[in-house]
Amino acid sequence: MNLCKYLFPLAVSVVLFSTPLLSPAFGADAPRDNEPQSPIQIEADQMINNQKDSSVFFSGKVSAEQGDIIIHADEMTVYYFSRNDAVNNKEQAGGKSSRNIQRIRAVGNVEITKGEWVATGDTAEYFENEKKVVLVGDTRVWQNNNLITGDKFIMYLDEGKSVVERSSEKDERVKAFFYPNSENK
Hints:
Elements: E1 40-43, E2 46-50, E3 55-66, E4 69-80, H1 83-92, E5 101-114, E6 117-127, E7 132-143, E8 146-156, E9 161-165, E10 175-177
Antiparallel strand pairs: 1-3, 2-3, 3-4, 4-5, 5-6, 6-7, 7-8, 8-9, 8-10
């Protein structure tokens, strides 16, 4: 199953990182269209395939890897287009693919890593059509010693834009901590 060329750009996402995040210190490269995709490996204590709702559910210490991107979570659900949608997508894509990922949802103790980049939160969702990753719930994003915190972290992969929002319920503001020369430490 091809979890799409931007999935890990993680997962779950995160799944995730084709353009600079908030500054040049927060960035990574995604695979280019002409580069071959590395295989995706998902390990968990349990897997349930539900053809009725076109999903695969993983639970228990879930670990998903593609290349140098790793997503850990308590649970992960991969939603793919139904066979009818897949036929339409295959025709639109010139016959290249028969089944594509629609979205991925990771829940519980979500951690996404890529090299020196780490993001944590309560839930993460990747939306294939929008090329968007949403990390929610006490989010923290590190690269080296630099840190950004907030309640919701949204990355628009195709636009090279990210947004961090505060929690209105807790009245906590977005915080950013940047350390000069942090990549040397």
